[in-house]
Design brief:
Arc Repressor Mutant, subunit A, mainly alpha, 3 strands, about 10% strand, transcription
């Protein structure tokens, strides 16, 4: 990814990068990094990732997801599923049966998150296992 010299983000150091980096102004650079920020913001919520992981194991009814995602309230699960559905990651399927059965499935678009989450998991494992340079490493409250 090409970034301007102002940005504090890590850069790939190469002759090509050094030649072209001065050609980007800061607003162009910010436009390039915006999708990364938005993706991280979307996945950083407390519940979205556990819900997505639950659905990777197969189609689920609301009550099944609720049991698998420890600590989530029905109201919050409903809100998060609606948000995931609006963004195209999850599909709500109503089966024509009696009683009515509603299932949630991960869409093909939702399945595109797998390599992203796998890569973040690998990075997280290597980050967690590296020495902390003598100081305590910051942690997220949800991971303790």
């Amino acid at each position: 990814m090409l970034l301007c010299k102002k940005c504090i983000f890590a850069r790939k150091v190469s002759a090509h990068f050094m030649e072209d980096s001065h050609k980007l102004d800061h607003s162009e650079c910010q436009n390039r990094i915006r999708p990364v920020k938005e993706a991280l913001a979307f996945l950083s919520g407390k519940w979205k990732l556990p819900i997505i992981l639950s659905l990777w194991l197969g189609n689920k009814r609301f009550s099944e997801i609720s049991k698998e995602v420890n600590g989530i309230t029905d109201r919050m699960l409903s809100k998060e599923l609606r948000d995931l559905e609006i963004n195209g990651f999850v599909k709500r399927v109503i089966h024509d049966s009696y009683p009515v059965v509603v299932e949630y499935i991960l869409t093909d678009y939702g399945k595109t998150l797998k390599p992203v989450i796998d890569a973040l998991g690998e990075w997280g494992a290597s980050y967690h296992s590296r020495p902390a340079n003598g100081s305590k490493r910051a942690s997220h409250p949800d991971t303790e």
